[in-house]
Hints:
Layout: H1 2-12, H2 14-46
Amino acid sequence: xxxxxxxxxxxxxxxxxxxxxxxxxxxxxxxxxxxxxxxxxxxxxxxx
Length: 48
């Protein structure tokens, strides 16, 4: 893993690697947020 990160940094540059990492984490957070919003909508539709 560490070697892969170092290779990526030397190939494309540190800012690009950091940006990719942050976007990946942000996407996971957005996926979880979307799931929770979907569950909330279902719960609100169940109530009279």
